[in-house]
User: Fold this.
Amino acid sequence: MRCEPHPISGAVYEAIGDGLVRVEDKAKGKSGVFRYDGTWIEGDLTYADPHMLIYVGGPDLPPGRDIPYPLMPPLEKDIPEFLESSIGAMVTAEAPQDAKIIAPYVGDPGKETPEGMRSASYIPLEFLVENERRPDLLPPVYKKSAPLPGGPVKTSVARYIDRKYHELEVEHIWKKVWQLVCREEDIPEVGDYHLYEIANLQYLVVRTGPSEFKAHVNACLHRGRQLRECHGKKAHEFRCPFHGWTWGIDGSLKLLTAEWDFPGVREDVSQLPGAKVATWGGFIFINPDPDAISLEEYMGPEMLEHYAKYKLENRYKQADVVKVIRANWKAVQEAFLEGWHSLATHPQLLLMGGDIADVRFDVFGNWCRMGHAGTGGSSPHRGIIQSKEAALEQFRATADFNREYLRGLIGEEADTYSDLELNEQTFNNLFPNFSPWGGWARIVYRFRPNGDNHEECLMQVMMLAPWPEGKPKPLPKEQRFLGPDDHWTQAPELGSLAKIFEQDSGNIPQVYRGMKTKQPPYVWYSAYQESVIRNFHRLYEERLGLAPGE
Assistant:
């Protein structure tokens, strides 16, 4: 049974079975019993932290699966050996209670810096660059700083809850931007195809050659019947099940049944309409706009340089989970575009480290970088602030650990990375909805409407494990689908991420419900810590032709 102290109050949360948690706050001389969903059962303590309740007493992972996600063995068969190794024993061992950091909330006072107000735990980027032990390996983009100017902004809740904006998104975003479809290894052989759906749009993305892909609108040119209703393998053609009209996998017309009854029609239906296709880092993208700029131009030079050395195309897809969440996709995505919610939403993370207050945010056009060149250990909301020297010592120790850990996965390639690259855990975002994390964090997010339902989101989480270049990869992990009432812990391949997502899922639907009743009917986004969300809405307004905050 899990038992943890609260990092701020010191109250002890102890699972007692059947989803119940006993909470004892000795400082107040009170205790109570709660269900993990927050329902009070008994005792003179009548309220407890809902996210600690979820973490301690909520749905759990199978034994041996609560492994920190950056260290998850790429292959499930290797988990038992990992757990018996020195690293596995170290990261899964229960930390002694006296090693867990408990401190009362005092609030982060912030401080003035040359870039503006930042957290009191702010460490200048220049300090980490100047103390880089392998400066010759550091890509120049790591030295750049590009904070978004401006102060807090407010945005109407209508943008999330009003169907009108969903319809505008279809016309001005989903028909106009580069968007992720799948990984190349999801359709590995010629004729393999992936059915990509976004809002009311559907495309068949098919491998037409060893390194060639095409995207076709998934509708017969006769009466509009869907050509395919799911992903498929080794197709030679796309034949409409309604009347048999048939096109090749390249989209060219092969058969027009009863053509005698359609004089003059062949030319109009000779080619399935489609979308532009491009690949990057092992991912496949489409853009339905025939006049769209290239994917590389859309991403921008900073994004291309930042990921160049990581060779995402070499990674092995060890997890692919899609979950339905009852909230608009923008509300869901925004929960993952800032880090300071960890203080309240993931309190267990504070027990062994900081509160993720000193996160660096950079904006480069359509791509934003979050968490770049940060250090852990400080918790300014609790008055715990490391010196630069102590932070640097920890920073270098983490780089050394990660280098040796990666050496066991990718061999000598581990020696080609600088300290900054080995520390990086950036949760980046490419407008509108693609978030491949930087560094060795493995995580890739995608957020989109659940079909044509603007009040539900499909949140997709992939984990891409480091894999030796040139070594054959096993088949990628099959996608797991979770309904709105399923728990993330039903996807043990996510490791410790599943427990974290359980806490996030305790917020997001309630955020969306709150938006519908909120007065006044707008939400606020902060100047710096939510600047990436501000940038999203800036681009969103430009594309939809909206006034600021509309």
Remarks:
- The first strand starts at residue 3 and ends at 5.
- The chain has three domains: 3-99, 111-161+295-544, 179-287.
- The two ends are 49 Å apart (CA to CA).
- The chain has a mean pLDDT of 96.
